[in-house]
Amino acid sequence: MKKNQKQNESTRIILKKISWTALILIVYDIGRHIPLPFNDYKMIKQLMINDHLLALSGSATGANLSQISLFSLGLGPWMSAMIIWQLLVMIKKFSFDKLSKREASFFQLLITLFIALIEAWGLLLGLRLVEMNLLKTLIIILTMVSGSFFLIWLANMNAINGIGGTVTVVLFGMIASIAQQVKPIFKVKLTSWNYAFWLILIMIVGLLLILMAVILDKAEYRIIIHRILINNKFNQQTYLPVRLNPGGGMAIMFGLSLLLVPNYLIRILHNFNQQNMLIYWLSKNIGLNSYFGVSIYVIILVSLSIVFGFVNVDAEKISENLRKSGDYIINCQPGVPTQAYLQRYIKLFSTLGAFFTGLIAGCPLYLGVIYSQYSTTLMLPGFLLMSVSMLRMITDQIKTIILLHSYSDLFSD
Length: 413
Known about the structure:
CATH superfamily of the largest domain: SecY subunit domain
Helix content: over 70%
Number of domains: 2
CATH topology of the largest domain: Preprotein translocase SecY subunit
Strand order of the largest sheet: 2-1-3
CATH class of the largest domain: Mainly Alpha
Number of strands: 3
CATH architecture of the largest domain: Orthogonal Bundle
Structural class: mainly alpha
């Protein structure tokens, strides 16, 4: 009887969270289609067809660049701000790690605002949305920045009341944007045999990539921990799991977000200094349509994969908690030696994960530079890896809710 009540309670909570998420996604989808004022959308559509890689890159942050709208910036400014903030916290020289939660949120939003202004201005100049009229320019920039902050609020509301946190919002926007970008691929006039062959080949490769991503995402190395308060058979089952790819596919999402910032910044610089050949060259080669741009992206991708590995598995914090509790890793001294021991494994697996992520999500883009007609298709492996990580986070949250309500009461009435 009580077991059924527990199951009903977990089902009720999950359905409530799903309802919240559905409502938030409906609001998000409406915002994606609210057009900005003073624009020639026929011209914008043509520009984005020519710069489809930018539109596809933006989709990884929930941005909608294929149809310039209220949420055109997506969560990109916030994601970039989180990366910058995490790096500042890791440095520890400026004591940002000692700030209160409220103070940290203030500085994070301040960085987000600065990046949002850069991206809105850069997008405005790059797409030539309006004639250079100061009032119209300010209205559009403020509208895009406001839309980005409203989307951040929506994502946070989903993190509190819904399923999957900010990831669900990004995943929904990404799927919607990719569908728009990939649709032209299936309109190419091919013979029936050619069409069937390439379609089957893409599906097989996609399934293999998903299988590899799932295996690597779930695979873990288990470091046995001796817990002094457990003196039975369960003592042999206590371990610290370290994922083989601790950075996960999130490095791709944040990498594309970070790549957009210099892209927009160089557009702004080029607008003020059009005679500078270096800035002109960068404006033409900073995107994913050049070897230089792809190389920058791969470097960002690999670096973030390694950084996320150390962030997700904090060796210093784990070793400190083990020391305080009296638990220890066998044949390893508590404190600094334990931290060094853990960091060795984190570094190894983060590097392996970064190599895998860079190989699958980054290297195919070099072929996209040569064969530009397939550049959109060659970005899909990265999006598949990212989607696997996102779906894993969502399913883990659902499993946690079910698990929390599966225990029987310690004291019955």
